[in-house]
Each structure stands twice: as structure tokens, then as C-alpha cells.
Design a protein that fits this description.
By secondary structure, this protein is α/β, with parallel strands linked by helices. Helix content is 22%, strand content 31%. The longest helix has 18 residues. It is globular and about 65 Å long.
Length: 422
């Protein structure tokens, strides 16, 4: 079923809101103010609170609409549908506006706090047109053994000859290893991980610091990769697993770690000693600078659920001879029930939970430890807003909030919130 609708406002998940006969419709690839023709998703006659659909024709375009830089990720009706770039039809300036509105609305609706949220673009993204930022990509081999992505709403595999969101370094590795030539076992999972080169006059030359994995098995490069991040003027080197989590944007580790350290330093206000918690700490992106850049004497309690990431973090700490970091592998909530006495009362807690957020129990456990401040890094603003409401009820106030567009062309945004004990 098709319908002509006037788009009203931004919504979540990269969609906008329209109405058909009083029923809410969430529309993909639209912009507020536009008059568009949409195709409703099947079944369109179900008795649901809302429907969903997608633009098939733009009748009156917004000034913020642009021709998709990656057509395959655009609307199905226009030859797209592979996903991975749901704001590809929006100008770069419009993407920042979209994300600022979305975070602010979620904070008001679920967090019960009325706040304007600034969104910063990461260095180099404007010059690259919002492309070439992913240091990790994943694909699946189609029936002909070619790397592909699935077309939304179908079982059709669309073969890829490139990946416009991938960094130039990753694309060089893909070409050098014949990834786009195919030859993979149909159905196999293909992953490329290529840390962004940070040295050399031309900024190029990954050497052997990359990985091509098929179904988790290393086919080329190295299983253990090296990431280099300069935080507050100091360079840190991290060993990370090629198949593990790391911030995917080439500049995200730098931008986020710099911001987090600035916030924590501000809360410590020159104190000579500090006790810090780093929860959901991964391979130690924040742990290493927290342990070395905050106070003359710093003790850190680090908790991470993934054993591979914990082993990476422990190696990274040993390389810097950091002995005042207590690294625990396990569920965060269960671990916080048994914090060693000398670490039980942190000055500042830093947490970077997965997309689902920290949830109320962990928020309560943090508040019970009575830190002066909490720095919450969130990749999902809905989860952040929900946890914000909990944290405010536990005696904290929102002291600062800033978002980073480390996922250009997508609706995702990273938000860093500072809560201070009242």
C-alpha cells in the first residue's frame, strides 16, 4: 500500500513521523516538512498502534536533503536497501541537527530533564563528506562467494565492490588482499579490522597491523592489533583483539578519551590522590589515561565482562607498568557487590555500557558508593535518558552533556554526560 504524507518531525532510529487517518507512521529516508509518497511495510492493514514505511518518491524536498553519497544504502525504491547508512539522504549539517534534536527529546521524554545537547563533528569528517570513517567492517559472502550485504526486507544478497564508509586504510587492505574479488565460501562471515595509521608523513602504511577474518579465522594480517591514541598530549598504545570491540570511528578513541579525561580532571580539581572506577572498560581505552593523567596517586577499579578484552587490558597495563589498577572480569552488577574495601568509595566513576545501558541496579550500586561525580558514555541516547532519570532520583544532577557524531550517515550518536552529586 502506498500513501502520500506530509512529514512532521524527527523520530528515533533514523525515522520521521507522519500520520495516516490519525495513525502514527514512522517513515524511513524522510525529512521534516517534506511531502513524500511512501510504501507501507507489510502487513499494512494490521491493527497496531503505529505503522512503518519508506519513501518511494519525494514530492516536495527539504533543503536538507542531498543525493545519497552511497546509493546502495538509500531507499529500496531508488536502488538501495542494504542498510548501514540510514541518514545518507541528509546533509552533514542536517545530520548534526537531527542528532541534537533526538538526544534532547529523549533526555526530556525519558530523563525528565530539559537540556540542549551540542553535537560535535569529529576531525576530518567534513572534508571526507561523512565517508571513510569505519576501521572495522563486516560482510557476508553471497551464493557466488562475493562479499555482500542483505537488502532490507528480503533474502537478497547485494554484492559489494567497495564500502564507502570504510577508511582509506581499510580499503587499501581490502584491495591488497583481494577481498572484492570474492572466492569466499557462501554464507561465511567476513570481517576486516584496520587500525588507523597515526604516524608517517603521508599517514599511510599499515604494515601488518590489520586483520582479515573469515568466520573468525585469521586469513591475513595479525590477530593482535595495535591502536595508538593521543590523550591530553600523551600517546598511549593499546593491543586489541582483531575480532573484539574497539571504537569503530578512526578518530573516536581520541575525541572521547580527551573529553572524558578533561571532565574527570575538572572534577578532581588538582587533588593529589584519586580512587576511580572504570566500568565496562573493554581493552582499557579510558583505563590507561585514567590511571596516569588524573592525580599523582591514582587507584583504579576496572570491570569488564569480556575475557578477551580483559586479557588485552591487562597486557596494556603491564606494558606501562601500571600496578594500581585492579582489573576484574565479570558482570558489572555482580562485581560491584564485592568491591575491595580500599576501592569501595570512588571519587569519580566512569562507565561506558553497551547499547542497552547500565540499568537501574548498576546505577543504584554506583550511587551507593557515593562518588562525587559520574561520567557516563552512551552509544544509545534512549538508554542514557532512561538511566539519567534513575541517577537524578539517586541524588545527582546533570552537570554537563555533549554528543559526538562518530557515526556519520547513521542515526547513531555518542553522548557523554557528567553527573555531579548534589
Amino acid at each position: 500500500m502506498q500513501a502520500e504524507v506530509r512529514i512532521e518531525r524527527h523520530a528515533d532510529q533514523g525515522r520521521c513521523v507522519a500520520h495516516i487517518d490519525g495513525r502514527v507512521v514512522f517513515v524511513r529516508f524522510a525529512l521534516p516538512g517534506e511531502l513524500v509518497r511512501i510504501e507501507l511495510d507489510e502487513p499494512h492493514d494490521r491493527d497496531e498502534r503505529f505503522w512503518t514505511g519508506e519513501v518511494v518518491e519525494v514530492l516536495e524536498a527539504s533543503a536538507g536533503r542531498v543525493e545519497p553519497a552511497w546509493a546502495l544504502a538509500g531507499p529500496l525504491a531508488m536502488g538501495g536497501g542494504v542498510g548501514g547508512a540510514d541518514l545518507v539522504h541528509v546533509s552533514l549539517a542536517g545530520q548534526l541537527t537531527w542528532k541534537a534534536v533526538t538526544v534532547s527529546e529523549q533526555m526530556k521524554r525519558l530523563g525528565h530533564v530539559d537540556v540542549s545537547v551540542p553535537v560535535s563533528r569529529v576531525a576530518g569528517d567534513e572534508e571526507l563528506g561523512g565517508l571513510h570513517w569505519r576501521t572495522r567492517i563486516e560482510m557476508i559472502a553471497d551464493e557466488n562467494g562475493m562479499p555482500s550485504m542483505r537488502r532490507r526486507g528480503t533474502h537478497v544478497r547485494v554484492p559489494l565492490a567497495t564500502m564507502p564508509l570504510a577508511t582509506n586504510a581499510l580499503l587499501d587492505v581490502a584491495a591488497a588482499n583481494g577481498v572484492w574479488d570474492g572466492g569466499f565460501e557462501p554464507g561465511s562471515q567476513i570481517r576486516l579490522s584496520v587500525p588507523e595509521p597515526r604516524h608517517g608523513e603521508d599517514g599511510a602504511g599499515v604494515g601488518g597491523n590489520y586483520a582479515v577474518l573469515v568466520d573468525g579465522e585469521l586469513k591475513a594480517g595479525s590477530r593482535r592489533l595495535t591502536e595508538q591514541v593521543t590523550v591530553a598530549g600523551r600517546e598511549f598504545t593499546y593491543g586489541v583483539d582483531a575480532n573484539g570491540f574497539w571504537q569503530v570511528h578512526r578518530e573516536a578513541p581520541v575525541a572521547l578519551a580527551d573529553h572524558v579525561i578533561d571532565l574527570v580532571r575538572g572534577e578532581m580539581d588538582g587533588a593529589v590522590s584519586a580512587v576511580l572506577w572504570d566500568l565496562y572498560s573493554g581493552s582499557g581505552l579510558f583505563t590507561l589515561p585514567l590511571a596516569t593523567l588524573i592525580a599523582e596517586r591514582t587507584r583504579v577499579f576496572s570491570v569488564e565482562g569480556g575475557d578477551v578484552a580483559v586479557k588485552s587490558q591487562q597486557r596494556n597495563l603491564r606494558a606501562l607498568d601500571l600496578n594500581d589498577v585492579d582489573v576484574c572480569c565479570g558482570d558489572v552488577s555482580r562485581t560491584l557487590a564485592h568491591v575491595p574495601a580500599h576501592l569501595a568509595h570512588p571519587d569519580v566513576v566512569v562507565l561506558d555500557p553497551p547499547r542497552a545501558g547500565a540499568h537501574a541496579k548498576v546505577c543504584r550500586q554506583i550511587a551507593e558508593a557515593a562518588p562525587h561525580a559520574i561520567v557516563y558514555i552512551a552509544c544509545d541516547c534512549t538508554s542514557l535518558a532512561r538511566d539519567t532519570a534513575t541517577i537524578l532520583d539517586l541524588g545527582y544532577e546533570l552537570a554537563d552533556i555533549h554528543a559526538y557524531d562518530i557515526y556519520p550517515m547513521t542515526h547513531h550518536v555518542e553522548t557523554v554526560a557528567l553527573f555531579r552529586r548534589v
